[in-house]
């Protein structure tokens, strides 16, 4: 299809619509001065960004705070338009509670992240660290850790019972963490060129959040290339990011593979960040086909610039055996179903395999409840391209699997030998496919064996979930902390979903450190990280094992009801809308309506 373009220098950005594919093709470069450019609008957008880099460098931290505050305001102002566009993209019933997912994974995290980034820059402007006043501690292995949730009284009320901390890489002490927090904003006049952000097609906040992180954490102006699936969001994102567009610090582009290829290989581009799959990453970095495979094996990239990435993987949920009530089993089955089915199953951190003990007396009861939760969860259209074929592939590889849901489009794989699960552990299905893996151990040995399994046999290191009753964790003592330390994942969620880490602006989001270009797994680098912490290793999230009021009756200090991100939460749409408004303008007067809606969930 011929390229069609609309371009204006400021708020009306370069728009290039080509094909549906968004995977860049290798080998293209920007034109020589005498050549006719295939994408003159992109050339113009990048030239604007080069000029905008100088304007960005001249802005004070106080000016940048004002820009972030305006983005926060606009994210809430245009939140309804944002959610309406996402609902249309995903084929949701506008009256469905599932619309809450689009509030809480769209405008809400962008407003929340803008607020924390603004506060971090304000502290730098005042001559202090973004971590001034933070609570520090010591994590296993002598690591420094920083408490990032709750940050204030509102967090304690709205996320009662939830907490999170960032663990630093080994050898980094508290003084160093405080000194280096701020990253590139510690010297705001020193910019780092033009970065390309290749946006994701599933969660609508990913692209703007990655854009903000590139601009603030790395001090790079940004050419954001939307995934074609999210092209209908272009008008909304233009409005939300207008303060940054108007100073030539951001440009938003649309198009297919040719646009992506042209961008990442353009001579005016200094860095690439992408969210997607490892296959797409390798195509960009090494090329495709036999030559691409040869280059990858030899670690000979064709991409001549740095690239960072968040690439998903096969996310596990480890269920530690214990004595649970029937209400506990039902709730945690719904929890795991949410970890798989949120956003229809099209999440980079969706749980794909549940590891349980075959010796657990309640194993069969839990698996039966999980089957019921998957079957009863609200039906929705498989909007993400290729979903049906991936479900069909799972059905072919696992012929004994159960097909659940109204149309049988959810696959549950159980009761196989460990080696028969290999395809499930090595390929991210990015579809409603879930397996249950049994290990023949109990107690601490089960926990350590499960940790070894997910470290060694699962593809990727983005996130892992652990579900355990409080008395089980208490009985393990320091050995539970040792299990956490052994898990080589970028986000670990205990009695919570790792998606909570995604929604927490001060949390880091990305793979466990140490991957390389030719063994990229879940990616290289982190995003979000609104406290601008240098050299993080992982984020640990804790949540309540039971919802209120059962939590209180069982001795847990939590008043949180069923979380609004659960796929069967009946008031999720209203709660998500109210939370988004709160993120834009926190106020005590907003709390009663939020609590009332949450309790109806």
CA-based shape: globular
Helix percent band: 40-55%
Question: What composes the largest sheet?
Answer: 11 strands, mixed
**What average pLDDT do the residues reach?**
94
- Strand residue percentage: 15-25%
What low-confidence regions span 5 or more consecutive residues with pLDDT below 50? 1-23
* Count, helices: 24
Question: What is the strand arrangement across the widest sheet?
Answer: 3-4-5-21-17-16-11-12-15-14-13
Gyration radius (Cα, Å) is 23 Å
Gap between N and C termini: 47 Å
**What structural class do the secondary elements suggest?**
alpha/beta
Write up this protein.
The chain is α/β, with parallel strands linked by helices and 601 residues long. Helix 12 packs across helix 13. It contains 24 helices and 21 strands.
List its traits.
disordered N terminus; globular; 6-stranded mixed sheet; 24 helices; 11-stranded mixed sheet; 16% strand
In short:
By secondary structure, the protein is an alpha/beta fold. Helices cover 41% and strands 16% of the residues. The strands form four sheets. Strands 3-4-5-21-17-16-11-12-15-14-13 form an eleven-stranded mixed sheet, sandwiched between helices. The protein has a six-stranded mixed sheet with strand order 8-7-6-9-10-19, sandwiched between helices.
């Amino acid at each position: 299809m011929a390229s069609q373009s609309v371009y204006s220098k400021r708020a009306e950005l370069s728009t290039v619509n080509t094909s549906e594919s968004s995977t860049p093709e290798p080998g293209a470069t920007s034109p020589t001065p005498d050549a006719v450019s295939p994408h003159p609008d992109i050339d113009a957008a990048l030239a604007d960004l080069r000029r905008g880099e100088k304007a960005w460098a001249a802005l004070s931290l106080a000016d940048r705070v004002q820009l972030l505050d305006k983005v926060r305001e606009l994210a809430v102002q245009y939140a309804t338009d944002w959610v309406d566009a996402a609902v249309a993209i995903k084929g949701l019933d506008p009256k469905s509670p599932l619309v809450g997912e689009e509030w809480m994974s769209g405008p809400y995290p962008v407003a929340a992240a803008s607020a924390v980034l603004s506060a971090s820059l304000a502290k730098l402007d005042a001559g202090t660290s973004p971590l001034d006043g933070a609570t520090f501690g010591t994590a296993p292995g002598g690591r420094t850790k920083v408490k990032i949730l709750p940050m204030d009284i509102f967090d304690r009320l709205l996320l009662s019972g939830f907490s999170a901390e960032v663990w630093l890489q080994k050898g980094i002490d508290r003084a160093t963490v405080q000194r280096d927090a701020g990253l590139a904003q510690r010297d705001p006049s020193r910019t780092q060129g033009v970065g390309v952000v290749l946006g994701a097609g599933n969660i609508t906040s990913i692209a703007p959040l990655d854009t903000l992180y590139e601009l603030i954490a790395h001090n790079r102006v940004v050419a954001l290339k939307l995934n074609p699936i999210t092209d209908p969001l272009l008008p909304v994102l233009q409005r939300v990011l207008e303060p940054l567009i108007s100073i030539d610090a951001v440009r938003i582009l649309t198009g297919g593979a040719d646009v992506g290829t042209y961008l990442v290989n353009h001579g005016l581009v200094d860095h690439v960040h992408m969210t997607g799959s490892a296959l797409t990453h390798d195509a960009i970095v090494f090329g495709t086909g036999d030559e691409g495979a040869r280059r990858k094996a030899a670690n000979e990239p064709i991409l001549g610039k740095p690239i960072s990435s968040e690439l998903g993987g096969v996310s596990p949920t480890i269920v530690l055996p214990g004595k649970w009530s029937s209400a506990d089993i039902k709730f945690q089955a719904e929890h795991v179903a949410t970890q798989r089915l949120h956003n229809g199953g099209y999440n980079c951190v969706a749980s794909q395999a549940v590891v349980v003990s075959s010796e657990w007396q309640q194993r069969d009861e839990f698996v039966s409840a999980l089957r019921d939760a998957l079957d009863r969860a609200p039906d929705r259209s498989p909007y993400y391209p290729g979903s049906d074929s991936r479900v069909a592939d799972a059905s072919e590889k696992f012929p004994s699997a159960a097909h659940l849901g109204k149309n049988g489009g959810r696959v549950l794989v159980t009761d196989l030998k460990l080696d028969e699960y290999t395809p499930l552990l090595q390929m991210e299905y990015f579809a409603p496919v879930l397996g249950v893996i049994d290990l023949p151990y109990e107690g601490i040995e089960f926990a350590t064996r499960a940790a070894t399994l997910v470290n060694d046999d699962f593809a990727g290191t983005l996130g892992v979930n652990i579900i355990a009753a409080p008395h089980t964790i208490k009985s393990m003592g320091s050995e539970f902390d040792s299990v956490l330390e052994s898990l080589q994942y970028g986000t670990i969620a205990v009695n919570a979903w790792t998606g909570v880490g995604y929604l927490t602006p001060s949390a880091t989001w990305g793979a466990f450190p140490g991957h390389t270009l030719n063994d990229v797994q879940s990616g290289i680098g982190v995003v979000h990280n609104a406290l601008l912490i240098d050299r993080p290793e992982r984020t640990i999230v804790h949540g309540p094992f039971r919802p209120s009021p059962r939590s209180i009756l069982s001795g847990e200090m939590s008043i949180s009801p069923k979380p609004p991100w659960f796929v069967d939460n009946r008031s999720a749409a209203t709660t998500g809308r109210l939370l988004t408004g709160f993120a834009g303008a926190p106020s005590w007067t907003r709390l009663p309506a939020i609590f009332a809606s949450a309790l109806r969930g």
